[in-house]
């Protein structure tokens, strides 16, 4: 348990209708006594005056008290819901500062205490960070599932199966010399370990879907100069994010906008037009285009005439491509069959709904049951690969001693424990909790 009591503004920017100040730590009762003159009934909102240290009321507000361990952090916590004026909040802060043993919280410190007090494992903590940051409906759904422990429960059930298997092996190793122990108790576990291995493999294969939901589908607009790339990003962003001129080679920096498409985050990149050029700045732009292409999930390959050169994209990018014919308002004749997947115009809006629907086809299908719990971070993915690898080795190593197979299972369990934050994650904690805002 922490002996410092912390406080922070947990609601958003000021001014606001209501500001929520959260307090957590052993001094919480004392703080409420000092500020409000009495303790509210636990978990009931009570309208009370908030006083400074001279006893002057600085505001009235709803006060809530959550005695630990049945609180978010597991410690005694309180919430003051006061008026969200800057001066009011400042006055409340100085009243809190005046109480010895109290200090302002650091980013993520409430969640960190919740983790350290066993209220949430690390996966749930990450889900909570994602939930606070969620912009789209699908980000919200995935994060809510993770924050409420969906993914944690899955990993816990796997950990249990591993523990059981290891216990059976230990028993066999310990009692191997005793004549009346039946031959291979441990043999019975390998069927389940094979099933578990398959579960892990399936789960890993959904990692890209999880990553796309959380971080967005990366869609790069590429093509020759003047194809209309910047015009398209402006049209879809509904604002002038990129410079558009009729000069070929206008765009040099890669810039991006975030779109919400069917509830999914899509990050759309505008890039420098691809061509051979002596211009130093434009060449740097093209180098950056290549870097974005290497990271793309999907490329929109734009051109304003069917015979324009687009092969240079294929030399750096081999993923899915939607071929887009542009400026259809200006085209005098139809393009030869098979030269474009969709024809658009940003002047008339023609073809845009079809283009969006085609992009939508590359969004993950998380309507299915597997949407329950997807790995969302590289950290999960990396550890899952270790689980999978060691589990596979344990299963395959039938020809070696049981003690060696047990060691592979121990390593698999260890990697699983790292995901939940149960084993050696000290160095990770600062990274994870710094993602939070103050007050969470
Ligand atoms: N009529 C018509 N003109 C368009 C359309 N889209 C783009 N243009 C024009 O085409 C020219 C080039 O457009 P940009 O969006 O700058 O093309 P870009 O591909 O970004 O060009 P670079 O950045 O130089 O590679 C501009 O004059 C645009 O106004 C369209 O749908 N219809
Ligand atoms: K241009
Ligand atoms: Mg451009």
Automatic annotation (TrEMBL):
<dbReference type="InterPro" id="IPR027266">
    <property type="entry name" value="TrmE/GcvT-like"/>
</dbReference>
<dbReference type="InterPro" id="IPR005225">
    <property type="entry name" value="Small_GTP-bd"/>
</dbReference>
<keyword id="KW-0819">tRNA processing</keyword>
<protein>
    <recommendedName>
        <fullName>tRNA modification GTPase MnmE</fullName>
        <ecNumber>3.6.-.-</ecNumber>
    </recommendedName>
</protein>
<keyword id="KW-0460">Magnesium</keyword>
<feature type="binding site">
    <location>
        <begin position="226"/>
        <end position="231"/>
    </location>
    <ligand>
        <name>GTP</name>
    </ligand>
</feature>
<keyword id="KW-0378">Hydrolase</keyword>
<dbReference type="InterPro" id="IPR027368">
    <property type="entry name" value="MnmE_dom2"/>
</dbReference>
<feature type="binding site">
    <location>
        <position position="250"/>
    </location>
    <ligand>
        <name>K(+)</name>
    </ligand>
</feature>
<feature type="binding site">
    <location>
        <position position="230"/>
    </location>
    <ligand>
        <name>Mg(2+)</name>
    </ligand>
</feature>
<dbReference type="Pfam" id="PF10396">
    <property type="entry name" value="TrmE_N"/>
</dbReference>
<keyword id="KW-0963">Cytoplasm</keyword>
<dbReference type="GO" id="GO:0016787">
    <property type="term" value="F:hydrolase activity"/>
</dbReference>
<feature type="binding site">
    <location>
        <position position="119"/>
    </location>
    <ligand>
        <name>(6S)-5-formyl-5,6,7,8-tetrahydrofolate</name>
    </ligand>
</feature>
<comment type="subunit">
    <text>Homodimer. Heterotetramer of two MnmE and two MnmG subunits.</text>
</comment>
<dbReference type="InterPro" id="IPR025867">
    <property type="entry name" value="MnmE_helical"/>
</dbReference>
<dbReference type="Pfam" id="PF12631">
    <property type="entry name" value="MnmE_helical"/>
</dbReference>
<feature type="binding site">
    <location>
        <position position="247"/>
    </location>
    <ligand>
        <name>K(+)</name>
    </ligand>
</feature>
<keyword id="KW-0547">Nucleotide-binding</keyword>
<keyword id="KW-0479">Metal-binding</keyword>
<feature type="binding site">
    <location>
        <position position="245"/>
    </location>
    <ligand>
        <name>K(+)</name>
    </ligand>
</feature>
<dbReference type="InterPro" id="IPR031168">
    <property type="entry name" value="G_TrmE"/>
</dbReference>
<feature type="binding site">
    <location>
        <position position="22"/>
    </location>
    <ligand>
        <name>(6S)-5-formyl-5,6,7,8-tetrahydrofolate</name>
    </ligand>
</feature>
<keyword id="KW-0630">Potassium</keyword>
<comment type="similarity">
    <text>Belongs to the TRAFAC class TrmE-Era-EngA-EngB-Septin-like GTPase superfamily. TrmE GTPase family.</text>
</comment>
<dbReference type="InterPro" id="IPR027417">
    <property type="entry name" value="P-loop_NTPase"/>
</dbReference>
<feature type="binding site">
    <location>
        <position position="226"/>
    </location>
    <ligand>
        <name>K(+)</name>
    </ligand>
</feature>
<dbReference type="InterPro" id="IPR004520">
    <property type="entry name" value="GTPase_MnmE"/>
</dbReference>
<feature type="binding site">
    <location>
        <position position="440"/>
    </location>
    <ligand>
        <name>(6S)-5-formyl-5,6,7,8-tetrahydrofolate</name>
    </ligand>
</feature>
<feature type="binding site">
    <location>
        <begin position="270"/>
        <end position="273"/>
    </location>
    <ligand>
        <name>GTP</name>
    </ligand>
</feature>
<dbReference type="Pfam" id="PF01926">
    <property type="entry name" value="MMR_HSR1"/>
</dbReference>
<feature type="binding site">
    <location>
        <position position="79"/>
    </location>
    <ligand>
        <name>(6S)-5-formyl-5,6,7,8-tetrahydrofolate</name>
    </ligand>
</feature>
<feature type="binding site">
    <location>
        <begin position="245"/>
        <end position="251"/>
    </location>
    <ligand>
        <name>GTP</name>
    </ligand>
</feature>
<comment type="function">
    <text>Exhibits a very high intrinsic GTPase hydrolysis rate. Involved in the addition of a carboxymethylaminomethyl (cmnm) group at the wobble position (U34) of certain tRNAs, forming tRNA-cmnm(5)s(2)U34.</text>
</comment>
<keyword id="KW-0342">GTP-binding</keyword>
<feature type="domain" description="TrmE-type G">
    <location>
        <begin position="216"/>
        <end position="364"/>
    </location>
</feature>
<dbReference type="InterPro" id="IPR018948">
    <property type="entry name" value="GTP-bd_TrmE_N"/>
</dbReference>
<dbReference type="InterPro" id="IPR006073">
    <property type="entry name" value="GTP-bd"/>
</dbReference>
<feature type="binding site">
    <location>
        <position position="251"/>
    </location>
    <ligand>
        <name>Mg(2+)</name>
    </ligand>
</feature>
